[in-house]
Amino acid sequence: MQKIFVTISRMVFVSGALIVLIIVFWGMALTLLNRKEGKKIATRQLAGEGMVLAAQNQLGGTTGKDVVADQIVADDARPLLIKKYLEKYKSPLLPYADMIISLSDTYKFDYYWIVAIAQQESNLCKKIPDNSFNCWGYGINSAGTLRFDSYELALKSYAEYLKREYFDKGLNTPELIMKKYCPHSNGSWAFGVNQFIHEIENGQ
After folding, report:
1. pTM of the model
2. pLDDT digit string (tens) for 105-159?
3. What is the CATH number of the domain that holds 90?
4. CA atoms within 13 A on the CB side of 130
5. 83 with 151, same domain?
6. Residues 143 and 168 reside in one and the same domain
């Protein structure tokens, strides 16, 4: 009887151990399957994100490259804005639009200054001293009038003058420039230059 009891006990123990092993094995198998499925889902998600990014690029979505491209386009638009503005007012400076941009870049100031001040001072070179090519009213005082032989020479001289006498000294707004350029103005000089800058930048 005792042998039978021992045999039954062993069988129960072995059966229990087998059940535990089966449970453990099944749990491990489920874990591995879940991990694989998780990887598949993550892969699909990444692939989907890639498709979204690709679609954004094709449809004009915003990316870092798009921002750079927009900046390049904005920079390239400067000559067009200047030409449009000079053409609108039939200015004799129109053939020198590219030169204005080049000089502004050379002396590292914004492209609109030369044109905006010329508009304020001489209606874009349409009201200047005879044979002066001086559109900015600089070097014109009781001692005489600063004259040049061409618009090209006048532009080169004026760009260097703006850089040296104003921007290099921290005078970089119409209000600050006015204090030295046109100190007796009641504010209308700066107001006009600001208005013309706004018109140029907005293609008006």
Report:
1. 0.64
2. 999 999 999 999 999 999 999 999 999 999 999 987 777 889 999 999 999 999 9
3. 1.10.530.10
4. 0
5. yes
6. yes
